[in-house]
Amino acid sequence: MIGNRWRLTGARIRRVVQLLALALFVGLLLATRIRGGEGPPGAVKLFFWLDPLVLAATFLAAHAVPLMCLLALATVAATLLLGRVFCGWVCPLGTIHDIAGRTIDFVRGKRPGNEHFSRWQRAKYYLLAAFAVMTLLGAHWVTIFDPLVLLYRSITAALLPGFQWAVEEASTVIYRTDPGIGSARVTAITEPAYRFLRDGIFAVQRQSFEGAWLILVVFAAVVGMNALRRRWWCRYICPLGAMLGALSIRPLLRRRVDAGRCTGCDLCSAGCHGAAATEEPAAWKPAECMLCLNCTEACRRSGLAFTAGWPWQARTQAQRLDISRRALVASAAGGLAGLWLVRSSPLARGNTYNPSLVRPPGARAEREFLQRCTACGMCIKVCPTGGLQPALGEAGLEGLWTPRLVPQIGHCEYNCTLCGQVCPTGAIAALSVEEKHKVRIGLAAFDVRRCIPYAYGRDCMVCEEHCPIPDKAIFFVDAVVQDHDGARRTVKQPRVDPSRCIGCGICEHVCVFKDRPAVRVFSANESRHPDNQPILGEPSPY
Amino acid sequence: MTRVSRRDFMALTAGAAALGACGGRGLLAADATAGAQMSIARWTGGKDLKPEEIRQAAVRLTEKAIEAIGGMKRFVSAGSVVWVKPNIAWDRKPELAANTNPDVVATIVRLCLAAGAKKVKVGDNPCHAAQKTYASSGIADAAKEAGAEVVFLDKSRFKDMAINGEKIKTLPVYPEIIETDLVINVPVVKHHVLAKTTICMKNYMGVIEKRNTLHQDLGTCIADLTRFMKPRLCVMDAVRILTARGPTGGNPADVKLTMTVAAGTDIVALDALGAEIMGLKPADIPSIVKGEQYGLGKMDYKALSPVEMAVS
C-alpha cells in the first residue's frame, strides 16, 4: 500500500468540478431577483439552456426550439464523446446526492458497499419512454422530473424560503428582546448579518409558497433515498440521466481493466456512482457510468483506466443495457395512460376555465403554455412581489407546480416583465413594458357584500388609489347611504371598467379585507383565451 | 461623539423653552432672527424649461427655501442622524409627479450633511414593489449620490406604538425612523381622490403599516398620525404637481409644472399653501381642518408672514 499520501486523482478533480458547478447553479439561482429596479441577466438560465431534456421535450411537445436552448447540443456532444459526464461532473442534483450519500454513510459509520448493476436501473429508461410518448402527444410533463428543474424548484419554493423564515424569525426575536451584556448587544452581530442576507440573498420579504410542503417532501424523499442506494434517483428514476445514458452507449472514452493486473478484488465497484459494473469481473455498462473515476482511484494495482477508442473498435468489456422491447411497448402504453390521466378533466379539455388560474402576463394559451412550461420556478423566483406561486391543483395534474398569480400574496407589478424575461422555454413570452401594459391576465370583480362603501356605507378607495392604470380601471359612483341613525350621506362606490382592467390584482392585494378580499381578480377576460372573455370589446359600457 | 436621543433632545428643548420664558425677550428675539416659520420659493426664471433646467431650478428653489427659514443648521445639530422622508410610493418616473422630486430630496440630503449631520437616511414604505419604486422614482440614485443611506423598510421591524389619537390608538411604526434625531418631511403636492389633495401630513403614512384601513376616516387618522410624529421641519415639493388621478397618476397630461418649493415648521400652514397651489380651499380639506383643531398649526398660513422669494 502506498499509504495515505495525497495524490491528485481524477476523482478528486471531479469533486472540485462538481462543487464549482453546484456553486454556480445556486449562485445563478440567487441572482434571479430584482436588484435596483433591474432584472437579472439572461445568463441566469444557463443550466436550463444546457439541459437536453428541456430542449427535446420543448421540441417534441411544442414543436419549438428556444434559441439559447440549442446550447444543450453541447451537452449532447460531450455525452456522445465522453459518456454521462454531465451526470457525474456537472449535475448539481447529482452532487447533492453524492454529498447526502457520503453524509448518510458517515453518520451510519458505513463504507460504501460493493454495488453492482441492478436490472431495476432500466426502470428509468422505461419511464423516459413513457414520458416520451406523453411528450410527443403534447404534454411537457417529463420536465417536472428533470433533475435541474427539480432542484431549482425545491430550492426556490422550499429550501430558500425555509432558510429565510429561520433567519427572519430568529433575528426579529433577537431584535425585539435585544439581549446583551452591558453595552454589548447581540444585535451588533445579528443585525448586520441579517441585513446582508435580506439585501443580498433574499428577494421578497417573508417569502413563502403555497404547497411548499409537497415540494419539500418530494425533495427530501429523493435525497433520503440515498440511504437505500447511493444516487438512487440517478440510477433508477432520472429522465435526464436516462436520456444521456441512451446517448452514451458507445462513447469514445471507455473503461479498460488490465486483466494481467486485476485480482478480482472488486474494490472498483465500491463507491461506483452509477452502479455501472456488473458482477462479472471487468464488465461495465457505459450507459450507466457517470465517469466518477472512483474505480480508478480505488484500484490498488492501477489496473484500471479510461482510454479513448473509436466507436467501431471492439469493446469486449462494455455491456449493453438489455432493454426489453416488450417492456418498452408497455411503457409507451403507460405513457398513453398517463396522458389520459392528466387530460381527462373538463379543465384539461378546455370545457371550463378555473377562475383562480391567473397566469403571468405573456403566458401562452393554456395548451401551448403547458407544452412549454417546465415548472422550473424561475418566474416564481424572480417575481418581485412574490405573487407568482406554484399551482397545486388549480391547473390540473398536468399543470402541477406551474406558475399562477395569487394577488392576495403579491400583485403583478405594472411595469415589470421579469417572469417573461427569465422563462427559459418561452412558455411566458418576453414582453416589452408597453406590450405588457396591454395584456389582460384577468378581471377584477367587487364583492359588494363585503366592500366597505357598499356593505358598510363608508369611504375606502384603497383599490382605486393603487390601480396603476394611468386612466384608472377603477372609478367611483356616488351613492347615498343611510346609517344606523337614519342620517344620509354620500359615499364613493368603486366600479371596475373592464375595458381598462388588466387584472394585475393590486386592488385585491391591498384590499383591507385580508381573509377574503372584497375585490378579487379572476381569470375571466384574460387576453390569452378568447373563449374566456365575457366582456364585449370597445367601446366601454360606461 | 455623543449622540443625542430624541427623548434627550426634547428634554433639552423643553429646558431651553423654559429658559427662554424666564429670560424674557432676549432669547425669543434671537429665535426670530434665526429664521421665519415658513418660506415659499417660486421660480420666476424663464418658461419652457428644458428637463436639465428644471433639475437645476429644483435645487435652487430648495436651497433658497431652506436658507430663508434659517438654514439647515437651525434644525440639524452636529453629529445627529436625520431621516429624510420623501414620498416614494409609486413605480413612476419623476416627470409624472407621483413621488417627491429627486433633486429636492438630494439637495436636502446635501444640506443636512453640510450642516454637520453624522448620517442621513432616506426611505419610505412604497405601495408598489420597493425595489422598482426606489429606482424609477430616481430618489435612490439621487440620494445615494448626495451621500445618504438609502433604507428599504423591513416588514418584520415595525413595532406597535401608541398613537393615542382620536381614531387610531396603536399602529405598527418603523422604529428606525422614530429613533433618528430629526425627521424631515418632504412630500410632493398631489391630487388624491378621497383626501382631494395630499401634502405634508399625509406623507407620514409612509412610516407605518396597516395604513389602508385609515382611509375610512382619512382626515382624522392623518391628523392623529401627524400629532404623533411631532413635525419639526417640512419641505414641500411643488416643482411638479399631480392635478388629477392621484395619488398614483401616470398620465403626463395630469402633471402641472408649478416650480415652487416651500419650507417651514408649521405643517398645517404648508398643507394649506399646497391646497391653494392645487386650486383648493384649505378649509375643504378634512386633514387640514383637523390639524388646526389639534393645534398642530395655522390654516391661515399668511398670518405667519412667510418669506416669499422669487428665484430665477
Give your account of this protein's structure.
The complex is a heterodimer of chains A (542) and B (312). Chain A has helices at 10-31, 46-49, 52-62, 72-82, 85-90, 92-108, 123-136, 147-177, 187-200, 212-224, 232-236, 239-247, 294-298, 325-343, 366-372, 378-382, 418-422, 433-438, 452-455, 462-466, 506-510, and strands at 180-181, 184-185, 253-257, 304-308, 388-390, 403-405, 443-446, 474-482, 488-496, 519-522. Chain A is mostly helical. Chain A has 2 domains: 7-344, no CATH class; 366-532, no CATH class. By secondary structure, chain B is of the alpha/beta class. Chain B has 2 domains: 1-34, no CATH class; 37-311, LarA, N-terminal domain (Rossmann fold), CATH 3.40.50. Helix content of chain B is 36%, strand content 21%. In chain B, helix 3 (51-68) crosses helix 4 (102-114) and helix 4 (102-114) runs parallel beside helix 6 (139-146). The N and C termini of chain B lie far apart (40 Å). Chain A binds chain B through residues 34-38, 168, 172, 175-176, 198-199, 205-206, 384-385, 413-416, 452, 458-462, 464-472, 476, 492, 506, 510-512, and chain B through 90-91, 127-129, 131-132, 134-136, 140, 152, 154-157, 159, 192-194, 212-213, 215-218, 245, 247-251.
Radius of gyration of chain A: 28 Å
Largest beta sheet of chain A, briefly?
2 strands, antiparallel
The CATH C-level class name of the largest domain in chain B: Alpha Beta
Can you count the helices of chain B? 11
What form of chain B results from the Cα inertia axes? globular
SSE string of chain B: HHEHEHEHHEEEHEEEHHEEHHE
| Beta-strand share of residues of chain A | 5-15%
Unreliable stretches of chain A: none
Give the tally of structural domains of chain B. Answer: 2
Biggest chain-to-chain interface with counts: A-B, 40 and 32 residues
